[in-house]
């Protein structure tokens, strides 16, 4: 067995350079911990002339990541380019075909092609590790595949997009509207080139689908994740939620129910005094619930050079130590084809609406809710300057989202509901 493990790094952005820095800074420490010398032999990026914050002069350079993946002096192909298809997919497939193990931070690639790549890796006797693809520096993949392997997982839940959590907590702390904080996040460089990947819940949905596959032994089914972004959350919603003892989070939830696999990524109210409610800024949090262990809460930085590179290196170290487990914790061909739950588990819901300020308006709304099978737990009407309109807040007893949607669709016919109403699930945590 070789006393060296040679890395080829495809992608020299924030994460790739972070990996280079760790290898350069901690070479002796890494060797002491895994018994092998971790070396970088070659790298790949589109622009060789770009000024980067690390010395790359000792490494061979490939402009084509596929060529990097096929090099004889590379043992582990580290893919930190991103993208669900294109060069990332082609280079990963080339690495497996050439007998390389793969470490990736690419949640989009795995959410779309994870099953096929897992089967290819097992057929070729290779491994794919992807700790850095979910929740940055939080070792949640390792927790599920190793530490909690003896548990039947009941529920996976968490805040998995730091940008959205920053926007929502900043709105609350500064009393600013969504549009203002969104632009602030853009100026700070927190948003993806396509902001909808963040605020639309897509990025976090990719991560949730990967965790669900491990937790419930199913094939990755990103297309079945119910996605709703934070664009409709107003400062009024945040204030009203706080008045009732809640905070609003873009929350991912996956659980196996009698109706099938439920996967949701949507704005939810959570108790303000819960760990999720206390989560501030760009931090991520994942909550795992097992039948034997109970509830485990993992909190940490969800992105950034250091945290994500740390996760990449954790996977590299496992490969160097000889730890080889299936990508999703069990052989890929044993993963079940999931049945998507068509109806979410019942929960209380928060409803915000604007009514005409006239007698009988609340009664009409209550009648529509009752006809849809939605029971009112509490209701609050806020002071208002307008003589014709009144903001009203309703918290329901547990009900299905389908019942809520039926009621919302009929509010317009009452003649007393003005504009579009907002409905948010209240999640028990």
Fraction of residues in H or I helices: 25-40%
What fraction of the residues are assigned to beta strands by DSSP?
Answer: 25-35%
Number of helical segments?
15
Q: How many runs of DSSP E, i.e. beta strands?
A: 16
Radius of gyration in whole Å, from Cα?
24 Å
Q: What would you call the shape? A: elongated
Task: Explain what you see.
By secondary structure, the chain is an alpha/beta fold. Helices cover 36% and strands 25% of the residues. The chain is built from 15 helices and 16 strands. Strands 7, 8, 9, 10, 11, 12, 13, 14, 15 and 16 form a 10-stranded mixed beta sheet that branches. A hairpin with a 2-residue loop joins β9 and β10 (260-271). α1 (14-25) crosses α13 (305-321) and α4 runs parallel beside α5. The radius of gyration is 24 Å and the shape is elongated. It starts with a strand and ends with a strand.
């Amino acid at each position: 067995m070789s006393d060296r493990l040679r890395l080829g790094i495809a992608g020299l952005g924030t994460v790739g350079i972070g990996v280079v820095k760790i290898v350069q800074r901690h070479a002796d420490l890494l060797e002491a911990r895994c018994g092998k010398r971790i070396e970088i032999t070659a790298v790949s990026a589109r622009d060789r002339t770009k000024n980067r914050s690390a010395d790359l002069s000792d490494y061979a350079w490939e402009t084509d990541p596929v060529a990097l993946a096929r090099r004889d002096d590379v043992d582990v192909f580290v893919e930190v380019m991103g993208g669900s298809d294109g060069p990332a997919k082609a280079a990963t497939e080339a690495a497996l075909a050439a007998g390389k193990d793969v470490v990736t931070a690419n949640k989009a690639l795995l959410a779309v092609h994870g099953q096929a790549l897992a089967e290819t890796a097992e057929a070729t006797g290779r491994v794919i590790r992807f700790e850095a693809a979910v929740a940055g520096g939080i070792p949640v993949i390792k927790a599920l595949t190793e530490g909690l392997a003896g548990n039947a997982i009941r529920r996976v839940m968490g805040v998995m997009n730091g940008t959205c959590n920053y926007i929502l907590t900043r709105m609350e702390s500064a009393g600013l509207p969504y549009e203002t904080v969104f632009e602030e996040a853009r100026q700070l460089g927190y948003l993806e080139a396509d902001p909808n990947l963040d605020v639309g819940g897509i990025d976090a949905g990719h991560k949730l689908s990967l965790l669900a596959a491990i937790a419930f032994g199913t094939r990755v089914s990103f297309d079945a994740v119910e996605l709703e972004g934070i664009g409709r959350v107003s400062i009024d919603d945040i204030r009203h939620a706080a008045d009732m003892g809640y905070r609003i989070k873009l929350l991912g939830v996956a659980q196996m129910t009698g109706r099938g696999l439920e996967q949701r990524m949507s704005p939810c109210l959570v108790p303000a005094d819960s760990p999720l409610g206390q989560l501030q800024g760009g931090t991520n949090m994942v909550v795992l619930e097992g039948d034997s262990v109970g509830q485990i809460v993992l909190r940490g930085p969800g992105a950034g050079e250091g945290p994500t590179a740390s996760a990449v290196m954790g996977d590299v170290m496992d490969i160097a130590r000889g730890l080889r487990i299936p990508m999703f914790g069990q052989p890929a061909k044993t993963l079940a084809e999931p049945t998507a739950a068509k109806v979410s588990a019942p929960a209380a819901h928060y409803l915000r609406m604007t009514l005409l300020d006239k007698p009988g308006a609340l009664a009409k709304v209550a009648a529509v809710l009752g006809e849809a099978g939605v029971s009112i737990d509490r209701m609050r009407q806020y002071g208002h300057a307008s003589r014709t309109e009144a903001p009203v807040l309703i918290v329901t007893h547990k009900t299905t989202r389908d019942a809520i949607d039926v009621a919302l669709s009929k509010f317009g016919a009452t003649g007393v509901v003005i504009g579009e109403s907002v409905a948010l699930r209240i999640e028990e945590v």
